[in-house]
Write a structure and sequence with these properties.
257 residues, alpha+beta, Aspartate Aminotransferase, domain 1, 2 domains, 6-stranded antiparallel sheet
């Protein structure tokens, strides 16, 4: 379900002529007639802590805005070197300033025949709902903290393990190899472990378990922990995944069963 801010962003971007919305890499994108993208909405992208619009702005606009107001504007990753401007929506930027910047991005991207159709800058009411910790980073919410506390307790109790971030999400490593993950996207919190392809088929009979994208073909499983979790279940999954990735010296440090 979209937040009020995301709904407002969608209404604003789709108010320009011949635009459409699609999702890419988990981010809402806005393009002109299945052509070029002029705007992307990014929430805590790879753990950067921002709620922002990335906009395909004209030459020189990025430099001017970032230099004058770095608290509101930044150079986004990947597309920043091409002149895109990052606009923070979580730092009190007046909503009335957003639409003109989106217009600049649209006009810079759209064919002239479409830009010429645009008369007034579209106006969308400002979202009333304040941005919360969950909008910026689900790890800051009470539920997120509960899950991370349990995962740390379980995973870091195993020999030679450490915690880190991968694509902005917490992971736990056995030596240098990731054996457990916790992440939260729109579908909610998931704890993920390696179980092997054969075990996947059996475990997905339980609706709490799903085969995650990208890692699923390598034998990983994802457990829905959005509402509740049992540490004993997590510990069993973590141990089996750890055994798969840990070296002989690390396994020798495990307590005897």
């Amino acid at each position: 379900m979209k937040t009020e801010l995301e709904t407002s962003i969608s209404q604003l971007c789709l108010a320009f002529p011949a635009t459409e919305e699609f999702t890419s890499h988990g981010m809402p994108n806005y393009r002109v007639q299945k052509g070029k993208v002029f705007a992307m909405y990014a929430v805590n992208h790879h753990g950067d802590g921002r709620v922002a619009l990335w906009l395909n702005t004209p030459d020189g606009m990025q430099d001017a805005y970032v230099r004058e107001e770095p608290e509101h504007f930044f150079v986004p990753p990947y597309v920043g070197p091409s002149g895109w401007l990052g606009v923070r929506l979580d730092k009190g930027l007046a909503w009335k300033r957003v639409a003109p910047i989106v217009r600049s991005a649209y006009e810079h991207t759209a064919p002239a025949r479409l830009s010429e159709q645009l008369k007034k800058t579209p106006s969308v009411p400002a979202p009333k709902q304040r941005i919360t910790a969950a909008d910026v980073d689900p790890k800051n919410t009470p539920r997120g903290q509960q899950i991370l506390q349990s995962m740390r307790k379980i995973c870091l109790a195993l020999p030679d393990t450490s915690e880190g971030l991968q694509f902005g999400q917490p992971v736990w490593r056995a030596g240098k190899k990731v054996f457990a993950q916790a992440y939260c996207y729109k579908e909610g919190w998931r704890a993920s472990f390696w179980v092997g392809v054969h075990a996947q088929l059996l475990m997905t009979d339980d609706p709490r378990y799903t085969i995650p994208p990208y890692m699923g073909n390598k034998g990983w499983i994802a457990l829905d922990v959005s509402r509740k979790h049992a540490e004993r279940e997590l510990a069993q999954l973590a141990l089996e995944s750890y055994r798969h990735f840990a070296g002989k010296k690390m396994l020798a440090k495990l307590p005897a069963a």
